[in-house]
Automatic annotation (TrEMBL):
The keyword Phosphoprotein applies. Residues 1-76 form the Response regulatory domain. The modification 4-aspartylphosphate is found at D42. May play the central regulatory role in sporulation. It may be an element of the effector pathway responsible for the activation of sporulation genes in response to nutritional stress. Spo0A may act in concert with spo0H (a sigma factor) to control the expression of some genes that are critical to the sporulation process. Keywords: Phosphoprotein, Two-component regulatory system. This is Stage 0 sporulation protein A homolog.
Amino acid sequence: MEISRCILEDSGMEVTCAVDGQEAVEIFEKSAPDYFGVIYMDVMMPRMNGLDAEKMIVALKQCMADNSDVKLHEDL
């Protein structure tokens, strides 16, 4: 995660990190619509995996009319 974070920040992006899928969903739920342009997360995470988190975020996006793009990765 740290390497990805450094690369993204060096590219000028603002990065928000979560320790697991549940925290990612909670962060997204509390964010303003269209705050996140891309959501990039691992598939294998504790508490809630990336696939389940993606489903919840997509459902929230539809309720919020959010245009974030969700990307899953197997080895972050």
